[in-house]
Amino acid sequence: MKRGFCYLLLACCLMMSRNIASAQKKAGQYVLVIHGGAGTILKKNMSPEMEEAYKVSLKRALEKGYGVLQSGGSSLDAVEATVRVLEDDSLFNAGKGAVFTHDGRNELDAAIMNGKTRAAGAVAGVTVIKNPVSAARAVMEKSEHVMMIGPGAEKFAKEAGLEIVDPSYFRTESRWKGLQKALKEDSLAAAKSNAYTNPGKFGIINKDNKFGTVGAVALDKQGNLAAATSTGGMTNKKYGRVGDSPIIGAGTYANNNTVAVSCTGWGEYYIRNVVAYDLSALMEYKGLSVQDAGKTVIKKVGDMGGDGGLIALDKNGNMAMPFNTEGMYRGAVTKDGKIEIYIYK
């Protein structure tokens, strides 16, 4: 009887160890995670053709970055290459697909960060740089600064040999129509709420159609993390507004000791909550997992009235994709090349 019990106990222990090993094998397998923006993304409003177009684009970006990592390239090279693919795709609010400001301009922001050295670079309010993420990397590697803005950033990018385009390159008809819609809706909402004569208010925010960002986080074969984020900002924005994307610690952050993070959503709330760094700090100082830390910071954003999401990849290859909106364009690829793509909740 005692021997039979021992055999049963041994069998249970072996089964538990197999389950633990299986769970460990499943965890920590991700090397690249991307997002293409969060918001009111509902399946009922998405045609099959448009849904497929987004999936194809996300897959193309993941394949590009994965190819860099597989060939032994750095996580920095991977996130830059991945984000460039998304910047060149008019489906996303970055680069070619950037939204319009109130004055009918396309103003672009981007940031990149090296988790190994914590070097970082960013550009904001640029209008003629084809790939702002590459300009951000040039700021990081070819200057003593972290952020450059406007004409100065554009002059630097040109001197650094980056591709400069006419502002008309960024114009797309769908984004122009989006501006006209926002102008009309905001004008009606402002008149109704008397926003323009109420001190402290600078306009109405329509969360459903204004936000969008692209980003990537990667872990390379050398164990180094990197993050990159790029955006066209907010539809109908005024006064030279800059969101969280190019602000290190708010919308973009990478630290080899913890995690790489790229955010998307209502930027003002991400800045106020220092979301990307807060996620890292929760992991470093409180020992939270990347999943729990991600949920915690997004809850903070939501509790303040903001919305959006983020992607995060920790130093062990565990990833998180929390968001509090109806959907977020997102995807990931594992060490063995398995691609996962999601859009809705």
UniProtKB/TrEMBL annotation:
Superkingdom of origin organism: Bacteria
Residue ranges that the Swiss-Prot or TrEMBL entry lists as coiled coil: none
Active site: T213 (nucleophile)
Cleavage (site feature) positions: G212, T213
Keywords for this protein: Autocatalytic cleavage, Hydrolase, Protease, Signal
Residues that hold substrate according to the record: R241, V242, G243, D244, T264, G265, W266, G267
InterPro entries: Ntn_hydrolases_N, Peptidase_T2
GO molecular function: hydrolase activity, acting on carbon-nitrogen (but not peptide) bonds, in linear amides; peptidase activity
Signal peptide: 1-23
GO terms (BP aspect): proteolysis
Gene3D superfamilies for the chain: (Glycosyl)asparaginase (3.60.20.30)
Identification of the protein by name: Isoaspartyl peptidase
Higher taxonomy: Bacteria, Pseudomonadati, Bacteroidota, Chitinophagia, Chitinophagales
